[in-house]
Amino acid sequence: MIKLSVFAGSLVLALMPLLAYAAEPCLPCHQEKSPGAVAQWQGSAHAKAGVGCEKCHGTDHEKMVKGEAKVGMKVCAPCHKKAYEEHRASRHGMGLHSGWGCTRKLPDRKPGECRFCHQEGDEAPRSDVQCARFLKQSPEMGEIGCNYCHSVEDACDSCHSKHMTDLKIVRDPNSCAKCHMGPDHPQWEMWQTSLHGTLNASAGRGTGPDCQSCHMPKGSHNVSIGLTMNSGGVPYPAAKAEPARAEMVNICSGCHAPSFARKELERNDQVRSQSLAILKEAEQVIWDLNDRGLLDPMPADRPPHPLSGPRLVTDSQMLYEDTSHIERLFFKMKKYDYARTVKGAYHQNPAYTHWYGNAELKMDLVDIKSEASRLKERKKGAAPAGVSEQQGAEDELKALKNKFDRGALSEDEYAKEKGKVLEKMR
Amino acid sequence: MIKLSVFAGSLVLALMPLLAYAAEPCLPCHQEKSPGAVAQWQGSAHAKAGVGCEKCHGTDHEKMVKGEAKVGMKVCAPCHKKAYEEHRASRHGMGLHSGWGCTRKLPDRKPGECRFCHQEGDEAPRSDVQCARFLKQSPEMGEIGCNYCHSVEDACDSCHSKHMTDLKIVRDPNSCAKCHMGPDHPQWEMWQTSLHGTLNASAGRGTGPDCQSCHMPKGSHNVSIGLTMNSGGVPYPAAKAEPARAEMVNICSGCHAPSFARKELERNDQVRSQSLAILKEAEQVIWDLNDRGLLDPMPADRPPHPLSGPRLVTDSQMLYEDTSHIERLFFKMKKYDYARTVKGAYHQNPAYTHWYGNAELKMDLVDIKSEASRLKERKKGAAPAGVSEQQGAEDELKALKNKFDRGALSEDEYAKEKGKVLEKMR
Amino acid sequence: MIKLSVFAGSLVLALMPLLAYAAEPCLPCHQEKSPGAVAQWQGSAHAKAGVGCEKCHGTDHEKMVKGEAKVGMKVCAPCHKKAYEEHRASRHGMGLHSGWGCTRKLPDRKPGECRFCHQEGDEAPRSDVQCARFLKQSPEMGEIGCNYCHSVEDACDSCHSKHMTDLKIVRDPNSCAKCHMGPDHPQWEMWQTSLHGTLNASAGRGTGPDCQSCHMPKGSHNVSIGLTMNSGGVPYPAAKAEPARAEMVNICSGCHAPSFARKELERNDQVRSQSLAILKEAEQVIWDLNDRGLLDPMPADRPPHPLSGPRLVTDSQMLYEDTSHIERLFFKMKKYDYARTVKGAYHQNPAYTHWYGNAELKMDLVDIKSEASRLKERKKGAAPAGVSEQQGAEDELKALKNKFDRGALSEDEYAKEKGKVLEKMR
């Protein structure tokens, strides 16, 4: 009797997919219209578990056709709770906030986009994080150039693909490659040619770890475990960095002695702070030119920054367009060179640390200083002979006032510097 | 009886390769001199079908030794008619015309090269397409740097390798990679890290399509099916673009809903026309400097352009050498940045579209405007004080005349602009 | 009786690893502390042959913990004599000498580093080769950015990994990739997309050769066989080049007709000498500016070169930091563009030869000439009107004297050039 009921139970389990198919009203049509998607679903764990079309896509066909019924993360969350929560706690869960920007100011927004910032029916955005670089793009460039990757915040299919559930796809570092590459963060490229990546290619994952080995330990969806800087490369304060470092050392110690791992990581911390200092030096040169009114063009003479208006911006909201030559050199230093040096070091890649990173950082500093010298000389050249000494002192005083106004000089320092100039004029 | 003759027929078929070998007079020598080539041929479908050395190489051994008996496409055509015709109808069939350039003007041409442009014995070339950039190269650089790839026009072994016929070689996207890569058209790189390419790596060709899947559908040798711009990135006119687009949507619809495919492609068309506008803006800056005589050096003061002489060239015949700094910036925009943005979009690669493409396009525009400002100020700086106002107006009038002469101003516009300058002078 | 002793002998052989394990006093502790290393050793040929921890690491545990007991090449040499000698005869055996530089002048050197230049207990270094670029780095950047690769001189585990002996790792071109890549010598990248590399991917190593096929023929550890230029790209003199060329043609002839191989290589020699000429042209422009005192900043006005002090350096000790814009352009030409052109040609990669190489070389020459023109005009602009003609002649005379002093003009040439200037002044 028991045997029989077990058999009957097994039969039901075995037939479940078929039952699911039979009950799936979308199939007849979609086997015609999107055979690829149907076939992928049929081979998926979802089909086997009886999770059909409506479960994820809902029933409002009109909305689907209009592209307003995207299968966001909240659709997956009820069944995949742990992954959902880990994801949201990680930097991936911030994807849109760092890249999407506020859509309010752009005309022609597509329906459905609003939900990224607004609760349905709520005019006030849930978050006011905006991205100046996104705001400068056309809707089309914003879509393929920004949101293709940054929508990872709300889209499991960023990594998992749409209708397949095969874990070999998402456990392959290639699934990370399609976003984590390029001039601004070539993690894919630097891993591939690191000792880890090359051993991965020659001797397999057990010997050469991949992205997932270190950044998704034990399958965690919190990809930010063990990181000690924010996504802009700014180091965490010690109180936040230390426990994160301990986590990473723990991950490394799957293969390495913890003392070795800690020493390596600390060496890379040094590379990071040295590189930040180079960046800072360049940034000062630009602010000094701004104080002296020598940027060409000056912020007031170009289209206003989408968030800060007609002011110099060199922080994480810095633009690479509608700017001056020297600022665009600094943009490259900040977004490309610094990232390659630091990420190159943490990924143990000599060529990225030194040549794609450090050498570019220092060569761009050379170019920035040279351009600054040119801009200063231009000013001098433009002044009629005779008046130039008097003019020079006045310019100096104005630059000092600007420096004081933006808080780069204390009241004491300002007084002292002003004194020096006045002394010389006498 | 029937059975016996079938058997006899099979026997002949089975022995044919052996017979071919036996009849192959080149083997005894070449098994010694080029064992690799012999072994590859022996493993090929050609050997099995009894296609021996002479069939492709002819019998004039002296010519072969001198390198004058290359196995061009016409040798393969009689047996591979469909492939030959598809190839000739495609952009591959134009390979030499776009890259080879006319060899008449170069000294020391090698015998055999003539046939690319001339029918044997005919002095007039079949085509007058020339490539200025090719004409500037040394014969050696022209050979490895240009013709290695552009000889695809006339050489099946560009893709098929020389003595092997194994289709796995030519169906591998690697066979495309060796030409379709690099700063000017990194299709290989952008595919590899696109969703298509990464799925190809993790889940195979059925899930992630490769070059051949989309550009050689059903094994067609017409690689230009479905393209809507020429090889320089200039969009086709609507009448030519629309049927091509329909072809591409049809290819996409092997996996995607046609409406989705069309929408994606149309988004990328927008990216293309926006990028063209940025390019155009930069080009105008350069022509304006040319009108004002401010390029450094001016076209008249440098080695003449091989096709256009001492004139500014910014079209597809633009050079990257013997030019000015600002023009070489524009060359990068046109050949590298624009190509990466547009091809990046059509290949669904966010990093190529945005960072390797769009961001570079906009940063180079910043640099071009900055250099233009520098060149204009230099001129002003050079003029002795007092005469500068009068001089400025005269320069302006001359620039307007140049603009009018090259057709960038209508007669009416010219008169109006001239009027404004004269008004100011009064 | 004989049979029995053979059996007994086999038994001993078979048990040896077990005996080795039993005798391995480090295991109990290290199975806990570094399980990865232990497992790799257990699977290695070393374990099978009874080569245990102490054999390589010694017995001074304190030293090991401090990182002062690195397993250098001399530890491996007694057993791997042939490989050791071949390695030392090759460019790999010079790794540290070309990249490490002298550590004497740097503070805070770590114990153990000294041995790279000094015999133990000997104050005089074995070699005085130093690297100016290394001397400019922080100890941390020097470690990951320089020595990670250059320590190949003394470290078999650069390629062989630490505890594994699996030859599939070291026969995989990936083991070369981790150093032979990047902007300055992208051999890995150019091989991958060459005909050789793409055939390797599609048809295997037998058809498409890899790094080891050509540069480590028959497993030789002399990786410099057949090279005809030094590591800076300077061609060997004929007497040294010719036998090396014969070696390489011999390697090629495993697949190609020797006459074909030689012709190809000679074509690439031409590309090399043409590219050297372009480099030389740019170098002259910079030395001329230096003679005229027009570099910005001049060598005397910047931190002194670590080896040459306040003097212009454009040879292999050239820096990319603390220099002028125009010199840093030349650094790129020399280290990146030239290397890509020449190595691209020898690796049969059209895109590296032409676009990443030759085109960059020529575009950087354009930029260098343009910057030189700007620097000269700046000087003129700065001179007060009226005195400029007299001043110009004096500058010219001073530049000629500098040129003569550095040996770029013979006494006769100097006299003649001086005469011309004086003639004009009259």
Automatic annotation (TrEMBL), chains A, B, C:
Its keywords, alphabetically, are: Signal
Cite the residue spans of the region called Disordered.
376-399
Q: Answer yes or no on keyword Signal.
A: yes
Tell me yes or no: is Transcription regulation among this UniProt entry's keywords. Answer: no
- Renumbered to this chain, the signal peptide range is 1-22
Domain of life according to the entry: Bacteria
- Name of the protein described by the UniProt record: Hydroxylamine oxidoreductase
State the organism of origin. Geoanaerobacter pelophilus
